Amino acid sequence: MHLSLDLPDAPATQKLGIKLGQILAPGSVVLLNGDLGTGKTTLIQGLGKGLGIEDLIDSPTFTLINEYADGRVPLYHFDLYRLSPAQVPSLNPELYWEAVEVAPGIVAIEWAEKLPYSPPEVLILDLSYQGEQRRVELWAKGPLSMAALQALSEEDQSFQVGLSC
Ligand SMILES: Nc1ncnc2c1ncn2[C@@H]1O[C@H](COP(=O)(O)OP(=O)(O)OP(=O)(O)O)[C@@H](O)[C@H]1O
Ligand SMILES: [Mg+2]
């Protein structure tokens, strides 16, 4: 299942994140791909709002992983920008989506193209510049992500426009 949306401004990117934060189930993994400044952190800030997280969500570029526990579901925010694909396994990201020693939550990963393997259940967001504008393509793999994409398209007519199966 695939959804394609125009994101005319930063609030549109945030709104998509908020909707996903309201919809996504624990155990979901959101992979964010896209060039510098395409809106990955902005979308995750919306995701945090949708989960009811009050803390300020910032880019975890220097810490690599930030954890937020004060929402309806924990959020684990990764930023792989500074790592090579060979360095990523040392972070043990699978411990987060397999919820080993952490509570089941939503895992959101910036620069996910550096992940050398794919989690079994993912919602992939490919963010890009389209001239002056920005755009996102959403791809679901696995039942949780497919249900989320379906719910997203049913909830809001503006999201329905770009849906194809
Ligand atoms: N759809 C949009 N249209 C225009 N501006 C946007 C949009 N989404 C986000 N922005 C703005 O673009 C800038 C960069 O956004 P953001 O930091 O979220 O990008 P990023 O992909 O996380 O960047 P990086 O690659 O450095 O991690 C911010 O000023 C943000 O407000
Ligand atoms: Mg960022």
The count of β-strands is 8
> Uncertain spans, ≥5 residues at pLDDT below 50?
none
Can you tell me the CATH topology? Rossmann fold
CATH superfamily: P-loop containing nucleotide triphosphate hydrolases
Question: Helix and strand succession?
Answer: EHEHEEHEEEHHE
Write a brief caption for the model.
The protein is of the alpha/beta class. The chain contains 5 helices and 8 strands, in the order βαβαββαβββααβ.
Explain the overall architecture:
The protein is an alpha/beta fold. The protein has five helices and eight strands, in the order E-H-E-H-E-E-H-E-E-E-H-H-E. The chain has a single domain, classed as 3-Layer(aba) Sandwich (Rossmann fold), CATH 3.40.50. The chain has an eight-stranded mixed β-sheet with strand order 3-4-5-2-6-7-1-8. Helix 1 packs across helix 2. The chain is globular and about 40 Å long. Magnesium ion (MG) binds next to helix 2. Adenosine-5'-triphosphate binds next to helix 1 and helix 2.
